[in-house]
Amino acid sequence: MLMAKILLIERDQNILQTVSVQLRRDNHQIEPVSSALEARHWLENGAFDLVIIDSNLPDEPGLHLLRWYRRKGNLPVIILSDRGSIDDRTEGLDAGADDFLIHPFSLRELSSRVRALLRRPGLICDYHRIGDWVLNPTTLSAHFNGRQVKLRPREFALLEFLARHPGVIFKANELVLRVWPSNSEVTAEALRTTVKRIRQQLGDRIIEVIAGAGYKLGSSEREVA
Length: 225
Fold this sequence. Notes:
The chain is α/β, with parallel strands linked by helices. The chain is 39% helix and 21% strand. It folds into 2 domains: 5-118, Rossmann fold, CATH 3.40.50.2300; 128-217, Winged helix-like DNA-binding domain superfamily/Winged helix DNA-binding domain (Arc Repressor Mutant, subunit A, Orthogonal Bundle), CATH 1.10.10. β10 and β11 (214-217) form a beta hairpin. 33% of the residues are buried.
């Protein structure tokens, strides 16, 4: 699994830092926040693949935040809680959580549960095939007929995102929002440069540039020898 964009909402700064480091090691992109107020902003204005919510936030119970979010969004959500009774877990799942993890928890277990939720259709998968190319998330590379092309992390993230949405045309600002960190000041020119590098390495057909509209996944059928 690779390159999910995850909103991590956790009040404890030590846990926030530790979990962020672990998930980045798993090659995910993390937006760490420590309050419900910050979380609401990102849930309304950001674009994520998965959300992790601490049940005991300083300004609002995590389950209140979850219930608010479930009225508008359906991303997978993991609740982190220091209360693990049957009633607590039932309340969390009934509020809309997809999984419930109790403190203290293993970072390896959290990584495993994140991977399990990201296997849902339409989210992240273990590899993608684009024409004759196969994207390998383990090596951040593309393979064709024994040839391997190593991609930069952001190049791979962009190509992998487009591969998850074949046929969909995305405007430049939409791709920046989904592929780059939420607090980055990336311009459309940086996106064009990234697209250009990908096409130079894998062929012009790998990403189609639609004049006046945006970008979409191409086919790259045997264009590169």
